[in-house]
Amino acid sequence: MATSVYANPQERHLDSKNISIALDELKRELRFGGRVTCNLSSSGLTLDCVRGLPDQLRSLSANVRLYALDLSLNRITANWEELLPIVRDFLGTKTVEYLDLSLNYLPALETLQQSDVLLRGYVSYGDRLSLGVDGNFLTGDQEYDRWILGARKFKREAYGYSSGDGWLQVDLVYSGSVPAQQNLKGTPDQLHANKLEHESAALHSLVKSHPEGKTYFKEANGGLYF
Known about the structure:
Blueprint: E1 3-7, H1 19-30, E2 35-39, H2 47-51, H3 53-58, E3 66-70, H4 80-92, E4 96-100, H5 116-123, E5 129-130, H6 142-159, H7 167-173, H8 188-209, E6 218-220, E7 223-225
Parallel strand pairs: 1-2, 2-3, 3-4, 4-5
Antiparallel strand pairs: 6-7
């Protein structure tokens, strides 16, 4: 089934005072039914604003559930204990089917290993929750790779593609030529810039020596996507 996408204009930062504008626009999209992705990425959303978002989304339509919600690259600052109830409110209530919270101001993912209770809470949502970066290489470490795979799943379900879909071809031809990001520390802008740099290097190397590799890639939204 095709997924339609509502996207808040990235130059319009959202807060508790004006988020109703974006939600009214989303409501018009939901009237058509079907699977709808709401892209609120890079909208300046804070933790306080996101806390009330599940209730606001549930009030939009009694009959149509939002399929995927992209909250990546916002200004959500929280520790894992603060964030988990919000994740539950989105996913545990089926307010949305898929949720992306990657590239916000969150602790490093490896710190989840310090609490079995918190780790189980997040892992319980499986690949419905995206906290990692879809363009990262798989490492062979299940505890780390689950977040990469969850991010790839979100991108495919929400937008029909994932940056990670092309890494297999890159790995086969240029094994080790592009360094894997072993942690997710840094500001969202830094992480996003690093991700695009790695993708660009891999793509240009592959296409230069293997013209047939062009079929694996496309350019979109100013970045290189697999």
